[in-house]
From TrEMBL:
<dbReference type="GO" id="GO:0005524">
    <property type="term" value="F:ATP binding"/>
</dbReference>
<keyword id="KW-0007">Acetylation</keyword>
<dbReference type="InterPro" id="IPR020845">
    <property type="entry name" value="AMP-binding_CS"/>
</dbReference>
<feature type="domain" description="AMP-binding enzyme C-terminal">
    <location>
        <begin position="469"/>
        <end position="547"/>
    </location>
</feature>
<keyword id="KW-0547">Nucleotide-binding</keyword>
<dbReference type="InterPro" id="IPR042099">
    <property type="entry name" value="ANL_N_sf"/>
</dbReference>
<dbReference type="Pfam" id="PF00501">
    <property type="entry name" value="AMP-binding"/>
</dbReference>
<dbReference type="InterPro" id="IPR045851">
    <property type="entry name" value="AMP-bd_C_sf"/>
</dbReference>
<dbReference type="GO" id="GO:0006085">
    <property type="term" value="P:acetyl-CoA biosynthetic process"/>
</dbReference>
<dbReference type="InterPro" id="IPR000873">
    <property type="entry name" value="AMP-dep_synth/lig_dom"/>
</dbReference>
<keyword id="KW-0436">Ligase</keyword>
<dbReference type="GO" id="GO:0005829">
    <property type="term" value="C:cytosol"/>
</dbReference>
<dbReference type="InterPro" id="IPR025110">
    <property type="entry name" value="AMP-bd_C"/>
</dbReference>
<feature type="domain" description="AMP-dependent synthetase/ligase">
    <location>
        <begin position="56"/>
        <end position="417"/>
    </location>
</feature>
<dbReference type="Pfam" id="PF13193">
    <property type="entry name" value="AMP-binding_C"/>
</dbReference>
<keyword id="KW-0067">ATP-binding</keyword>
<dbReference type="GO" id="GO:0003987">
    <property type="term" value="F:acetate-CoA ligase activity"/>
</dbReference>
Length: 570
């Protein structure tokens, strides 16, 4: 019997999946946007300005908190400030289609800046503040960025001599002197106009360029268009289930697509109050944020949930999450153990969502009105047609492992890999389908189960084993905080399973413990899925968005080059 967790029976926007699946079309929500009547499209207008002509004008749009700042902005505040920033960019000669990049820590200025850039039709490029010089240079050069919004400290990693297209640096914090081409943000904002003529365009105009790394080669610039907002909006309504009085917190940095699609677009298209917490992860700090701000909808990632889980239940017990209504996850497979823990400590189901930088918005989801099957990513969002296909594009029957694919043509689908049409075409090698590069199966009830990246699936003694299954079993063991599993070439078995694990506090590595863990997987999962080798690490290599980098584990193990490491955590 499969484990099933039924919905909680709350008042959700979408009450019944079957009532819309197969009949809902994205066109059905066009009438909710102003461009439906005006014919003129501007993302920032839909995010902010539109709300200021009605009762949301003085509603809080942005709550910002870090160790030094606590601020709050209404929709009207953001309208005026982003007008000023748009005007500032105009005065620098930035015009429609120019790329404006952001390389700085989270702060209200990032959000104001991006909105301002959208207002004049510029294409926004977000970067993680942790990028080093090489990573920053590659991306700015590839995008031929015209302007970079950054800080006095971070600009040291921007070699302007190598970036001939980069005309201006806007420095958001103050510095003693400004070199040619450098702009004092505070001063320039003060000199800008509060009212601005918006640049209007069409749904196919470019909007945002997100760089994402593949396992090999240079990072890819994934381009999304304005029309993606249709999907951000309706997934924000149905999946995030945003209601008028919600305090919504998405923990992702805007350098990661989750931090823009669901940290900016989905909440504000729905007129929600959006909380941003700057600074680093700390279990204490996060719990205080959840409690003190009375967060009602919380979107985070498995890596964060696992960190909170290993921080211990005593910590959780110190806080109350009484207002928390809806919890969601993205980025990596959500281990069933984490879902069970979430039910125990928050009294809430954690709703997994599957999507990618390239898909721009949710593809496979657990809606609040659906049963959750722990370990499954859920079902396709209404209007999305997903399937498991073989390499020729034949749709496979339920329970067969294959390529997770989506029928092309959803609103937030990427429109280009910047400067690399050949790379773009690789995703569409099978006519009519977008091939995700993930391997999964669908059960007889239409739930999708993630197995790994296609390249990560292990073949041991003729059996295909998804690393996720093994990792999920491993983290059920009380000593294991995190696990990354790879296939290691073996003359006898094709591959053997090797597990890299980080231990929870209070546990020390010993042969006895590892034997115990191996047995735990063997009896709990299957003999062939039990790792033959273990290695205990202080922590696992991860991307900035918290994904375990199995290819790095594998390359290290085999003594091969590790490929592009620009997105790795410290
Ligand atoms: C939004 C985002 C995409 C890749 C994707 C898959 C993995 C994301 C997942 C998941 C299992 C989930 N992934 N969500 N795997 N279950 N719910 O993460 O975009 O950074 O481009 O990564 O992340 O492998 O293909 P991105």
């Amino acid at each position: 019997m499969k484990e099933i967790i039924p919905p909680d029976g709350g008042q959700h926007h979408l009450k019944n999946y079957e009532s819309v699946f197969g009949t809902f079309r994205f066109e059905d929500v066009h009438a909710d946007f102003s461009w439906h009547t005006t014919g003129k499209v501007n993302m920032a207008y839909e995010l902010i300005d539109r709300h200021t002509t009605g009762p949301r004008k003085n509603k809080t749009a942005l709550l910002y908190a870090d160790d030094h700042r606590r601020e709050s902005y209404t929709f009207e505040d953001l309208r005026k400030l982003s007008n000023r920033f748009g005007h500032l960019l105009q005065r620098l000669g930035v015009s429609k289609g120019d790329r404006v990049f952001f390389f700085m820590p989270r702060s209200p200025e990032v959000y104001i800046g991006m909105l301002g850039a959208f207002k004049i039709g510029a294409v926004v490029g977000p970067l993680f503040e942790a990028f080093m010089e090489g990573a920053v240079t590659d991306r700015l050069a590839d995008a031929e960025a015209a302007v970079l919004v950054t800080t006095a400290a971070l600009k040291e990693r921007v070699p302007r001599g190598k970036l001939p297209n980069l005309r201006h640096l806007i420095i958001v914090d103050e510095q003693p002197e400004y070199a040619a081409g450098e702009v004092n943000f505070k001063q320039a904002m003060a000199e800008s106009e509060e009212e601005l003529e918006l640049a209007w365009g069409s749904l196919e105009d470019p909007m945002i360029l997100h760089y994402t790394s593949g396992s090999t080669g240079k990072p890819k610039g994934v381009l999304h268009v304005q029309g993606a907002m249709i999907q951000h909006y309706i997934t924000g309504k149905w999946v995030l289930d945003l209601q008028e009085d919600d305090i919504y917190w998405c923990t992702a940095d805007p350098g990661w697509v989750t931090g823009t699609s669901y940290g900016i677009f989905a909440p504000w298209l729905n007129g929600a109050t959006n909380l941003v917490r700057g600074g680093r992860f700390s279990a204490d700090g996060w719990y205080r944020t959840l409690q003190d701000y009375g967060v009602t909808v919380w979107y985070s990632a498995p890596t964060a949930f696992r960190m909170l889980m290993s921080a211990g239940d005593e910590l959780t017990a110190k806080y109350s999450f009484g207002r928390l209504r809806h919890v969601l996850s993205v980025g990596e497979p959500l281990n069933p153990e984490v879902i069970r823990w979430g039910l125990k400590v928050y009294g809430k189901r954690i709703h997994d969502t599957w999507w990618m930088t390239e898909t721009g918005a949710h593809m496979i989801v657990n809606l609040p009105c659906m049963d959750i099957r722990p370990g499954s990513m859920g079902k396709p969002f209404p209007g999305i047609e997903a399937a498991i296909v073989d390499n020729q594009g034949n749709v496979l029957p339920p329970n067969s492992l294959g390529n997770l694919a989506v029928k092309t043509g959803w609103p937030s689908m990427m429109r280009q890999i910047w400067n690399n049409p050949a790379k773009y075409d690789e995703y569409f090698s099978v006519p009519g389908w977008y091939i995700s590069g993930d391997s999964a199966y669908m059960d007889e009830d239409g739930y999708f189960w993630f197995q790994g990246r296609v390249d990560d699936v292990i073949n041991t003694s003729g059996e295909r084993v998804g690393p996720f299954e093994v990792e999920s079993k491993l983290v059920e063991h009380p000593a294991v905080a995190e696990a990354g599993v790879i296939g290691k070439p073996d003359p006898l078995r094709g591959e053997i399973i090797k597990a890299f694990i980080a231990l929870r506090e209070g546990y020390a590595p010993s042969d006895e413990l590892l034997d115990h863990i191996r047995l735990f997987v063997k009896t709990g999962l299957s003999a062939h899925a039990a790792p033959r080798e273990f290695e205990v690490l202080e922590k696992l290599p991860k991307t900035r968005s918290g994904k375990i980098m199995r290819r790095v584990l594998k390359a290290k193990e085999l003594g091969l080059p590790t490929g592009d490491l620009s997105t790795i955590e410290d």
